[in-house]
C-alpha cells in the first residue's frame, strides 16, 4: 500500500474486540521490533494477551476497553530517547496498520506494564494495538503555513513530506512542530514546548522522511 494512503487510513483506536493477534502478524511484529532494537539500540518490548495493564482506573478514564496487546517503548536514558522512540514507534504503528490491525499511542492512561525496564533505562509510553471496534476518526490539522516556512513553490517531495507530517499523531493533537526548508534543499524540524513534544517530533520526522524520501538534518 502507498505510504500516504496508509497514513490516511490509520487513526487512534481505544476500544478493541476480543480477537487474538494471528501467528503471522506476531511473527512480523516480533521481527520488526527485534530489527529496530538492534539498529537503534533500544529495548522496545511487545506483549500479547496481557489484559492487566489496561484494566486500571486510568485506562478506564482514558476510555480504553478490550486492550490485551501493547508495545512498551523503552530505551537507555538520553536527551534523544523520546525522539528516537517516537520515530521508531511510529514505524511500528504503521506496520501494525499494514497488518490489518489498529493502534493508539498511550502516555499516562494505563496501568503498570510488564516491561523489563533495566537500570539506566526508561519507559516513555505504550502503544495499544489489536482488532479495533472501529477504524477511528481523522484528527483536525493546522494549516500548512502554521507548521512550515514555505507554502508556495514547494518541491513535490517537500509537499509530500509535509502532507505526511500533518497526518502524524501527536499528543492531544497539539501539532507543536515546525519544518524549515532551506535554499540548499536541506530540511530541519523542531518542536515547541509541551507534554511529549519530543516524542511527537520523532513521530512527525518518520512521517516526513518516509513520504518525502529525504533525510532530515539531525
Automatic annotation (TrEMBL):
Gene3D superfamilies: NADH Oxidase, putative nitroreductase (tm1586), domain 2
Putative nitroreductase TM1586 domain sequence ranges: 2-212
Top-level taxon of the source organism: Bacteria
GO MF terms, alphabetically ordered: oxidoreductase activity
SUPFAM superfamilies documented for this protein: FMN-dependent nitroreductase-like
Protein name: Nitroreductase
Species assigned in the record: Ruthenibacterium lactatiformans
Amino acid at each position: 500500500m502507498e505510504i500516504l494512503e496508509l497514513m490516511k487510513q490509520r487513526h487512534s483506536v481505544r476500544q478493541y474486540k476480543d480477537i487474538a493477534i494471528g501467528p503471522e502478524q506476531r511473527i512480523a511484529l516480533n521481527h520488526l521490533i527485534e530489527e529496530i532494537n538492534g539498529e537503534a539500540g533500544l529495548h522496545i518490548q511487545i506483549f500479547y494477551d496481557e489484559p492487566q495493564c489496561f484494566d486500571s482506573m486510568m485506562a478506564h478514564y482514558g476510555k480504553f476497553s478490550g486492550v490485551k496487546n501493547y508495545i512498551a517503548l523503552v530505551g537507555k536514558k538520553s536527551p534523544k530517547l523520546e525522539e528516537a522512540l517516537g520515530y521508531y514507534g511510529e514505524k511500528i504503528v504503521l506496520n501494525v496498520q499494514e497488518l490489518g490491525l489498529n493502534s493508539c499511542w498511550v502516555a499516562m492512561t494505563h496501568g503498570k506494564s510488564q516491561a523489563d525496564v533495566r537500570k539506566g533505562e526508561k519507559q516513555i509510553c505504550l502503544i495499544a494495538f489489536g482488532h479495533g471496534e472501529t477504524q477511528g476518526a481523522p484528527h483536525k490539522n493546522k494549516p500548512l503555513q502554521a507548521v512550515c516556512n514555505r507554502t508556495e513553490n514547494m518541491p513535490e517531495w517537500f509537499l509530500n513530506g509535509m502532507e505526511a507530517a500533518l497526518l502524524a499523531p501527536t499528543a492531544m493533537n497539539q501539532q507543536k512542530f515546525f519544518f524549515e526548508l532551506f535554499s540548499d534543499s536541506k530540511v530541519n524540524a523542531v518542536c515547541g514546548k509541551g507534554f511529549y513534544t519530543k516524542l511527537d517530533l520523532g513521530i512527525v520526522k518518520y512521517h516526513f522522511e518516509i513520504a518525502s524520501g529525504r533525510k532530515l538534518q539531525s
